[in-house]
Design goal:
This is TetR/AcrR family transcriptional regulator. With 194 residues, the protein is mostly helical. It is built from nine helices and no strands.
Length: 194
C-alpha cells in the first residue's frame, strides 16, 4: 500500500472538511487535528487556509479537465458513439459517487461571485469542454464516424447537457442520467433535429 504524503493528506482532509462544514467554518486547527499534525506543521505546508482553498481549487479544476475523461486518440470509426457515451457516463458516475464534490463546487461558485479568479477559472473549465467536444467531433468527422455538420453547436449542446446533469446531480435530483446522456449523444452525434 502506498503511503500518502502529509501535503496530500492535508488537501484530502481540507476537501472533506470544506465540503462538510464550509470554508468559513473550517479552521486550520480542525484540519491539523484531522491530519494528526501540529498547527506549525500545517503552516509549514500551507501558509493559510486561503492557500489551501486556492491549491485545492486548482487541483479540482485539473481533475475535471476535459482530457481526463475524453481521450480523442481512443476514438475510432467503430467505437465513436459508444465511447462518447461511456466517457460521458464516467464523468457523471464520478460525481455521483463523491458527495463532497457537489458541496465544495457550490462553495467555489459562491466564491466566484466575490472573487473573479474563481469564476474565471470555472468558465475556463467549461470552455475547455466546449473546445474538447469540438475537437472530438471534428476527429469523428475526419475518421468518417459522424457527419461534419454544425460542429460548434453540437459541441456546445454536449457541454450544456453534461453541465446540466452535473447541476441536477448536485441538487439531488434522482433522474436516469445514463439514459439522458445516451439519448442526447445519439441525437447530437447523428445530427438529428430534436
Amino acid at each position: 500500500m502506498k503511503r500518502t504524503s502529509t501535503y496530500a493528506d492535508i488537501l484530502n482532509t481540507g476537501y472533506r472538511l470544506f465540503a462538510e462544514h464550509g470554508f468559513e467554518k473550517t479552521s486550520m486547527t480542525m484540519i491539523a487535528k484531522e491530519v494528526n499534525i501540529s498547527k506549525p506543521a500545517l503552516y509549514y505546508h500551507f501558509l493559510s487556509k486561503e492557500v489551501i482553498i486556492d491549491v485545492l481549487f486548482e487541483e479540482i479544476c485539473k481533475s475535471i479537465d476535459f482530457a481526463n475523461f475524453f481521450n480523442i486518440q481512443h476514438y475510432t470509426k467503430d467505437n465513436f458513439e459508444e465511447k462518447l457515451i461511456a466517457d460521458g457516463l464516467h464523468v457523471i458516475t464520478k460525481q455521483k459517487v463523491d458527495d463532497n464534490y457537489s458541496r465544495i463546487m457550490k462553495q467555489y461558485q459562491a466564491l466566484g461571485y466575490r472573487n473573479p479568479k474563481y469564476s474565471q477559472k470555472l468558465l475556463e473549465v467549461l470552455n475547455g469542454f466546449t473546445t474538447g467536444f469540438v475537437e472530438l467531433l471534428r476527429h469523428g468527422a475526419s475518421i468518417g464516424a459522424i457527419h461534419d455538420k454544425d460542429t460548434l453547436v453540437r459541441a456546445q449542446m454536449l457541454n450544456m447537457i453534461i453541465d446540466s446533469i452535473d447541476n441536477f446531480i448536485s441538487y439531488g435530483f434522482e433522474y436516469n442520467y445514463a439514459d439522458i446522456w445516451t439519448k442526447a449523444v445519439l441525437t447530437i452525434v447523428k445530427g438529428e433535429d430534436t
